[in-house]
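step 4 of 6: structure.
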Amino acid sequence: MMVKIGVLALQGAVSEHIRSIEACGVEAIIVKGKDDLKLVDGLILPGGESTTMRKLMDRHNMLTPLKEFATAGKPMFGTCAGLILLAQKIVRYDFSHIGVLNATVERNSFGRQVDSFETNLEVKDIATDFPAVFIRAPHIVEVESDVEILAMHADKIVMVRQGHLLGCSFHPELTSDHRITAYFTEMVKESLAKRVAV
Amino acid sequence: MTINQTGTDRVKRGMAEMQKGGVIMDVINAEQAKIAEAAGAVAVMALERVPSDIRAAGGVARMADPRIMEEVMGAVTIPVMAKARIGHITEARILEAMGVDYIDESEVLTPADEEYHLRKSEFTVPFVCGCKDLGEAARRIGEGASMLRTKGEPGTGNIVEAVRHLRKVNAHVRKIVHMNEDELMTEAKILGAPYEVLLQIKHNGKLPVVNFAAGGVATPADAALMMELGADGVFVGSGIFKSENPEKFARAIVEATTHYQDYNLLVEISKDLGIPMKGIEISRLSAEERMQDRGW
């Protein structure tokens, strides 16, 4: 079964995700508008500036189609800014974006760019030594009971899964380690198999 | 637990990767920074005067008053960049100590050193530098720049130099990619470029860092043109806050940068913008007025 994974391409590290998806042997599609969403079985929300992406979503009425994509059970994976877009609550903000991940995130919670860092991370079911790059990264402050914690760093939650939704604070796309993308690819394949079976 | 490593190439270059497809806007105070953020800028460049005003004022242009950077950093959540003079180690260290997210070692300011650029690899904060051709680009990468921008001619509102520099850099990258490896050392000698950087370009098929366009972007169509020619994103200096309606121009330029090949959309967003900044014909600039010739 050929699956297609999209990368939201309003702004940010799009080409890195495309490269990583293709390295996992899956077709990658650039998603700029709501019609592009119909072509894909799963979607990656890349790193970048969440404020910029939100403005561009609003101007082209992308927010509702993105929410519908998620509520239809199609997998979504947000990295860094993408995690902020997915979260239901954002510390110090009275609004959210797509808001489907039952978690609260805090923006820029490791400091400014001079504090950005890389480290090796243990990620449940995926790796014991994942090279994780944190850039002006958010972290997950708290999660509801249906959200599984996949990785912690310095006592902060940095990666979670809630059924068909996956989110992390760091940037797997900036490395040549494709294990996390491969994990998401499997999520998309499983979800598609389920929908075909129904 | 392993130790966190800060200031690595991956962290510094990665920060620029996150800015791709975006617009970085020059601002001189908190109010302008908020307008830029609301319009969808991916970062702001905090400075005392935009390039066209630096031209008008004449004299020596230096790093801005730290108060301006502080004010801007307090006003927005997007990254804040700031400019240091070419070769001015101390201005750069001051900006790093303040916690700005990126430093532009910039020809828009009056150079502090006419011989040596900063040794940027020694800093934790990442740097962006200007370039007119691949030799200059490779020298800056060799010194540790984590991001490039083609120079264009700042403060002119004239896109011609930006186009010239971006085409020149990209054409030369393509040439390097297709050269035989045994020809690269001679090419490095001709360009005055570090051999290792050329080798990296050959192997990766592209520059090892993000390259934005700068110096002359005044309209949404200008921004879209630079994306069409292969820029990773756009810096807009005087083009926004020297236009008649900065909010509208800022929003339109952001949208044009994302949807640069959606020509029907470009029709709509280019309508009724008001008067863009007044431009300058490049041939009217004297040799001393050409900012692009500062640095080497």
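step 5 of 6: annotate
 - The longest helix of chain A spans residues 179-197.
 - The helical segments of chain A are 14-23, 34-37, 50-59, 63-71, 81-86, 179-197.
step 6 of 6: archive
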